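Backbone-to-sequence.
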């Protein structure tokens, strides 16, 4: 096995770097976007952060959870450094800057991003029509508005929603499914990067 292509874990189970990058890149982008609101810069920072793993090939992580936590912290640190420089160049809201630097902001952002990532990964298992209707529901549209937009009946909308929620309930843990049922207008960056726009 070419160790340079793998991320080492203490459990002896290695993660293929290419797969880890592909499966997690957009999740970290959505997280960074909460700080930067700049898609291009967000992608640059996440790519730089993930490449640190590639460059430090001999590092061994306690677990995949520990690896994820490490990347979240690196991404957040790079975002704050970027915003610090930007603050010197432009008039930046100090209150907002202090808020995103706080540890509790990091914790809440990570929990929210992980939950949304799980939800949207599950949504990819739905048919395109069910996924589209659920996404419109999450965006705050009423059944009648969805029906008008898709040129279908309200009863058809309800039927698709019921089918989709029943599938998601089987795929998601109870606490994550309950979160889904309360979400409206969720993270749009993660949504379109996962191909869930349509």
């Amino acid at each position: 096995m070419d160790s340079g292509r793998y991320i080492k874990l203490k459990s002896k189970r290695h993660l293929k770097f290419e797969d880890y990058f592909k499966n997690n890149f957009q999740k970290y982008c959505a997280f960074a976007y909460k700080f930067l609101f700049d898609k291009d810069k967000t992608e640059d920072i996440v790519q730089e952060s993930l490449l640190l793993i590639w460059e430090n090939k001999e590092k061994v992580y306690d677990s995949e959870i520990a690896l994820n936590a490490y990347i979240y912290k690196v991404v957040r640190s790079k975002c704050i450094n970027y915003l610090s420089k930007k603050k010197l160049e432009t008039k930046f809201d100090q209150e907002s800057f202090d808020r995103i630097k706080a540890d509790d902001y990091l914790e809440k952002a990570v929990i929210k991003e992980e939950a949304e990532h799980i939800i949207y990964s599950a949504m990819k298992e739905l048919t395109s029509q069910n996924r589209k209707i659920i996404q419109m529901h999450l965006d705050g549209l009423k059944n009648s508005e969805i029906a008008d937009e898709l040129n279908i009946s309200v009863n058809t909308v309800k039927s698709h929603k019921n089918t989709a929620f029943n599938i998601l309930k089987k795929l998601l843990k109870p606490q994550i499914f309950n979160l889904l049922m309360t979400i409206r207008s969720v993270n749009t960056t993660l949504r379109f990067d996962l191909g869930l726009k349509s």
